[in-house]
Amino acid sequence: MSGRDSVQIPDDRDFGAFRAECESERGWSLTYSKGGVAVWVQLLEPERSLHKIKCRMECKDVPAATLYDVLHDIEYRKKWDSNVIETFDIGRLTVNSDVGYYAWRCPKPLKNRDVITLRSWLPMGTDYIIMNYSVKHPKYPPRKDMVRAVSIQTGYLIEGTGANSCTITYLAQVDPKGN
Fold first, then answer.
1. Pfam families per the record (predicted)?
2. Global pTM value
Protein backbone atom coordinates (compact mmCIF):
# COMPACT_ATOMS: atom_id res chain seq x y z
CA MET A 1 0.00 0.00 0.00
CA SER A 2 2.85 2.44 0.60
CA GLY A 3 4.38 4.23 -2.35
CA ARG A 4 1.31 4.32 -4.60
CA ASP A 5 1.02 7.07 -7.16
CA SER A 6 -2.74 6.76 -7.48
CA VAL A 7 -5.67 6.23 -5.17
CA GLN A 8 -6.54 2.55 -4.91
CA ILE A 9 -8.89 0.79 -2.56
CA PRO A 10 -6.89 -1.94 -0.79
CA ASP A 11 -7.53 -5.52 -1.87
CA ASP A 12 -6.86 -8.86 -0.17
CA ARG A 13 -3.14 -8.65 -1.07
CA ASP A 14 -2.87 -5.26 0.66
CA PHE A 15 -4.63 -6.52 3.80
CA GLY A 16 -2.42 -9.64 3.76
CA ALA A 17 0.75 -7.57 3.37
CA PHE A 18 -0.33 -5.26 6.20
CA ARG A 19 -1.01 -8.22 8.49
CA ALA A 20 2.33 -9.84 7.59
CA GLU A 21 4.18 -6.62 8.41
CA CYS A 22 2.35 -6.32 11.75
CA GLU A 23 3.28 -9.92 12.64
CA SER A 24 6.88 -9.85 11.39
CA GLU A 25 9.81 -8.88 13.57
CA ARG A 26 12.39 -9.15 10.78
CA GLY A 27 13.95 -5.77 9.98
CA TRP A 28 12.50 -4.20 13.12
CA SER A 29 14.45 -3.01 16.19
CA LEU A 30 12.72 -3.64 19.51
CA THR A 31 13.05 -0.40 21.51
CA TYR A 32 10.68 -1.09 24.42
CA SER A 33 9.08 -4.12 26.03
CA LYS A 34 7.37 -4.06 29.40
CA GLY A 35 4.04 -5.08 30.90
CA GLY A 36 2.55 -6.55 27.73
CA VAL A 37 3.52 -3.55 25.57
CA ALA A 38 6.24 -3.71 22.92
CA VAL A 39 7.49 -1.01 20.53
CA TRP A 40 9.62 -1.52 17.42
CA VAL A 41 11.19 0.97 15.00
CA GLN A 42 12.21 0.40 11.42
CA LEU A 43 14.55 3.00 9.95
CA LEU A 44 13.90 3.18 6.23
CA GLU A 45 15.99 6.17 5.27
CA PRO A 46 18.85 6.69 7.74
CA GLU A 47 19.52 10.23 6.46
CA ARG A 48 15.93 11.25 7.26
CA SER A 49 13.82 11.00 10.39
CA LEU A 50 10.97 9.31 8.50
CA HIS A 51 10.64 5.75 9.77
CA LYS A 52 8.04 3.19 10.72
CA ILE A 53 6.86 2.45 14.22
CA LYS A 54 5.02 -0.61 15.45
CA CYS A 55 3.41 -1.02 18.86
CA ARG A 56 1.79 -4.17 20.20
CA MET A 57 -0.28 -4.43 23.36
CA GLU A 58 -2.11 -7.24 25.08
CA CYS A 59 -5.68 -6.34 26.12
CA LYS A 60 -6.68 -8.91 28.73
CA ASP A 61 -10.21 -7.65 29.46
CA VAL A 62 -11.33 -6.35 26.05
CA PRO A 63 -12.91 -8.50 23.33
CA ALA A 64 -11.47 -7.93 19.85
CA ALA A 65 -14.89 -6.87 18.50
CA THR A 66 -15.22 -4.16 21.17
CA LEU A 67 -11.76 -2.74 20.46
CA TYR A 68 -12.51 -2.75 16.74
CA ASP A 69 -15.78 -0.86 17.34
CA VAL A 70 -14.03 1.73 19.53
CA LEU A 71 -11.31 2.38 16.95
CA HIS A 72 -13.73 2.35 14.03
CA ASP A 73 -16.31 4.77 15.51
CA ILE A 74 -15.21 8.34 14.69
CA GLU A 75 -17.95 9.89 16.83
CA TYR A 76 -16.86 7.90 19.88
CA ARG A 77 -13.22 8.82 19.19
CA LYS A 78 -14.06 12.39 20.19
CA LYS A 79 -14.79 11.06 23.69
CA TRP A 80 -11.61 9.02 24.28
CA ASP A 81 -9.02 10.85 22.15
CA SER A 82 -8.13 14.05 24.02
CA ASN A 83 -6.00 15.28 21.07
CA VAL A 84 -8.77 15.19 18.45
CA ILE A 85 -9.84 18.61 17.19
CA GLU A 86 -12.17 17.43 14.45
CA THR A 87 -12.93 14.22 12.61
CA PHE A 88 -15.57 13.34 10.05
CA ASP A 89 -16.33 11.13 7.10
CA ILE A 90 -16.07 12.80 3.70
CA GLY A 91 -17.59 9.93 1.76
CA ARG A 92 -18.08 6.18 1.58
CA LEU A 93 -16.36 4.48 -1.36
CA THR A 94 -17.28 0.83 -0.80
CA VAL A 95 -18.82 -1.23 1.99
CA ASN A 96 -15.41 -1.35 3.69
CA SER A 97 -13.67 1.90 2.71
CA ASP A 98 -14.20 5.62 3.06
CA VAL A 99 -12.39 8.93 2.85
CA GLY A 100 -12.18 10.90 6.06
CA TYR A 101 -10.72 13.96 7.76
CA TYR A 102 -8.87 13.97 11.07
CA ALA A 103 -7.25 16.94 12.86
CA TRP A 104 -5.31 16.71 16.12
CA ARG A 105 -3.62 18.91 18.71
CA CYS A 106 0.15 18.97 18.86
CA PRO A 107 2.21 20.11 21.85
CA LYS A 108 3.39 23.71 21.74
CA PRO A 109 5.29 25.16 19.88
CA LEU A 110 4.22 22.81 17.04
CA LYS A 111 1.25 23.69 14.85
CA ASN A 112 -1.70 21.34 14.93
CA ARG A 113 -1.88 18.72 12.17
CA ASP A 114 -4.59 17.33 9.93
CA VAL A 115 -4.84 14.57 7.36
CA ILE A 116 -7.23 13.29 4.68
CA THR A 117 -7.13 9.51 4.42
CA LEU A 118 -8.60 6.62 2.53
CA ARG A 119 -9.51 4.25 5.34
CA SER A 120 -10.28 0.59 4.75
CA TRP A 121 -11.29 -2.16 7.14
CA LEU A 122 -11.65 -5.91 7.08
CA PRO A 123 -13.27 -8.08 9.76
CA MET A 124 -11.88 -11.65 9.60
CA GLY A 125 -13.68 -13.77 12.18
CA THR A 126 -12.14 -12.79 15.52
CA ASP A 127 -9.47 -10.62 13.87
CA TYR A 128 -9.82 -7.14 12.35
CA ILE A 129 -7.72 -4.77 10.26
CA ILE A 130 -8.22 -1.02 9.93
CA MET A 131 -5.68 0.73 7.72
CA ASN A 132 -5.31 4.01 5.90
CA TYR A 133 -3.12 6.18 3.73
CA SER A 134 -3.29 9.84 2.75
CA VAL A 135 -5.22 11.06 -0.26
CA LYS A 136 -6.08 14.49 -1.62
CA HIS A 137 -9.62 15.77 -1.90
CA PRO A 138 -10.52 18.90 -3.92
CA LYS A 139 -13.10 20.05 -1.36
CA TYR A 140 -10.63 19.81 1.54
CA PRO A 141 -7.38 21.59 0.65
CA PRO A 142 -4.76 22.23 3.35
CA ARG A 143 -5.90 24.73 5.99
CA LYS A 144 -3.89 27.81 6.96
CA ASP A 145 -4.19 27.04 10.67
CA MET A 146 -2.91 23.43 10.32
CA VAL A 147 0.00 21.52 8.83
CA ARG A 148 -1.20 18.79 6.47
CA ALA A 149 0.52 15.56 7.55
CA VAL A 150 0.89 12.54 5.28
CA SER A 151 -0.03 9.01 6.33
CA ILE A 152 2.09 6.76 4.15
CA GLN A 153 0.70 3.69 5.88
CA THR A 154 -1.10 3.56 9.21
CA GLY A 155 -3.37 1.03 10.80
CA TYR A 156 -4.36 -1.53 13.38
CA LEU A 157 -4.36 -5.30 13.47
CA ILE A 158 -6.63 -6.59 16.23
CA GLU A 159 -6.31 -10.30 16.95
CA GLY A 160 -8.77 -12.10 19.19
CA THR A 161 -6.93 -14.23 21.75
CA GLY A 162 -9.97 -15.35 23.75
CA ALA A 163 -13.62 -14.49 24.40
CA ASN A 164 -12.64 -11.35 26.34
CA SER A 165 -9.07 -10.68 25.25
CA CYS A 166 -7.11 -9.54 22.22
CA THR A 167 -3.82 -8.20 21.00
CA ILE A 168 -3.63 -4.92 19.12
CA THR A 169 -0.76 -3.97 16.82
CA TYR A 170 -0.52 -0.36 15.66
CA LEU A 171 1.68 0.21 12.61
CA ALA A 172 2.46 3.72 11.38
CA GLN A 173 4.61 5.50 8.87
CA VAL A 174 3.59 9.15 8.94
CA ASP A 175 5.34 12.27 7.71
CA PRO A 176 4.18 15.01 10.12
CA LYS A 177 5.53 17.69 7.74
CA GLY A 178 6.50 21.12 9.01
CA ASN A 179 9.62 22.00 10.97
1. START
2. 0.90
The answer to the question of residue 2 being in a domain is: no
Helix (H, G, I), strand (E, B) or coil at 147: strand
Task: Identify the three-state secondary structure at position 71.
Answer: helix
Q: Is the dihedral of CA 72, 97, 94, 98 positive or negative?
A: positive
Q: What length does the chain have?
A: 179
- Has residue 6 been placed in a domain? no
Q: How many domains does the chain have?
A: 1
State the chain's mean pLDDT as an integer.
91
Q: Quote the pLDDT of residue 178.
A: 79
Nearest to 134 by CA among 7, 24, 13: 7
Q: Domain range holding 94?
A: 12-175
For the chain, the helix, strand and coil percentages under 3-state DSSP, each to the nearest 5: 15, 50, 35
Could you give phi then psi for residue 59, rounded to 5 degrees? -115, 100
For residue 64, give the nearest of 15, 154, 129, 128 by alpha carbon.
128
27: left (phi over 0), alpha (psi -120 to 50) or beta: left
Tens of pLDDT, residues 129-163: 999 999 999 999 999 999 999 999 999 999 999 99
Q: Does residue 16 sit within a domain?
A: yes
Q: Please report whether residue 3 resides in a domain.
A: no
Question: Per DSSP, what are the bridge partners of residue 114?
Answer: 103, 148
In angstroms, the CA 15 to CA 97 distance is: 12
